[in-house]
Design a protein that fits this description.
Number of strands: 11
Shape: globular
CATH architecture of the domain at 87-269: 3-Layer(aba) Sandwich
Number of helices: 9
CATH superfamily of the domain at 87-269: Vaccinia Virus protein VP39
Largest sheet: 7 strands, mixed
CATH class of the domain at 87-269: Alpha Beta
Strand order of the largest sheet: 5-4-3-6-7-9-8
Radius of gyration: 20 Å
Strand content: 15-25%
CATH topology of the domain at 87-269: Rossmann fold
């Protein structure tokens, strides 16, 4: 999902009802009753708030946190902007878990894969992936402002990167994927229309590839809309669902399974071996 100092595009300047928490509590108490409002207040107070998670930045002197609403993304085309989702970085430990889960379960050797993050924002997930020896760690982001911040962050952590890092400011639908095996990370980066076009492009590039390749797509915040779009592409087989008590960090793993045509014209999955 998708600065330094707060700008008009960060959450710091945005109006929020939580700027007046006492007023919110009083209104909630009128609506829900005092004890129920208190219960929800405690749940909120104790809950993890990704917007405020600056641990990675404190450790590395980077700027990967915060939130940028969709309306504030510097995307010229209105239809594209409203199909983009807001910028909110994934926790670093979630990205590490998604990678390490595949290292053990698939299994995969990072040196045989390129990591690509769709909607890379300020670059946190890409930079975390670069801690592993992938062939390349690539971030794709349509916002020029966020891409510039991501590149600055990459400079700050380059000494700890085990993989070369690149950030591309481009429309995900136009990006040409590197050859070879791919680990395509998606944190619910866009709406269903663009997701459909992106998956179509990945499929077409995979089919056109001269060499057999393995393509894994871990999709974080696995909402019904995204699952419905993936269901339109039988070549992307759902191989794993990982549940979490916080549904925002539930993720689904899809794997590209090319289809062949049999003599009777029917499609069937081709062997990956």
């Amino acid at each position: 999902m998708k600065s330094s100092a707060p700008s008009p595009k960060t959450s710091a300047g945005a109006e929020s009802p939580w700027d007046s928490p006492i007023d919110v509590f009083q209104e909630s108490a009128k609506e829900l009753g005092f004890w129920m409002a208190l219960r929800y207040a405690l749940i909120y107070a104790l809950s993890y708030k990704p917007v405020d998670d600056t641990r990675y930045d404190r450790q590395h002197g980077t700027d990967t946190s915060g939130i940028v609403p969709t309306r504030d993304l510097d995307i010229a085309d209105d239809s594209t902007r409203w199909q983009a989702n807001l910028f909110l970085a994934s926790p670093a430990r979630i990205t590490r878990y998604m990678i390490e889960a595949q290292l053990g379960a698939a299994p995969i050797n990072p040196q045989d894969y390129s990591f690509v993050d769709y909607g890379s924002g300020k670059g946190r997930s890409t930079l975390v992936a670069a801690e592993y020896p992938f062939k390349r760690a690539i971030g794709i982001e349509i916002s020029a402002e966020l891409t510039a911040i991501a590149r600055q962050n990459a400079e700050r952590v380059k000494s700890r990167c085990a993989a070369p890092v690149e950030f591309f400011c481009t429309d995900a639908r136009k990006f040409l994927l590197p050859e070879g095996n791919l680990f395509l990370h998606m944190y619910h980066p866009f709406g269903q229309d663009i997701l459909r076009e992106v998956l179509s492009g990945i499929r077409d590039q995979a089919i056109a590839s001269e060499q057999p390749r393995r393509i894994l797509i871990p999709y974080l915040f696995s909402v019904a809309m995204a699952k419905a779009v993936f269901h339109e592409f039988p070549e992307f087989r759902r191989t794993r669902d990982v549940f979490c008590m916080n549904p925002q960090y539930r993720w689904t793993l899809y794997e590209w399974v090319p289809h062949t045509t049999t003599s009777d014209g029917a499609n069937k999955p081709a062997s990956l071996l």
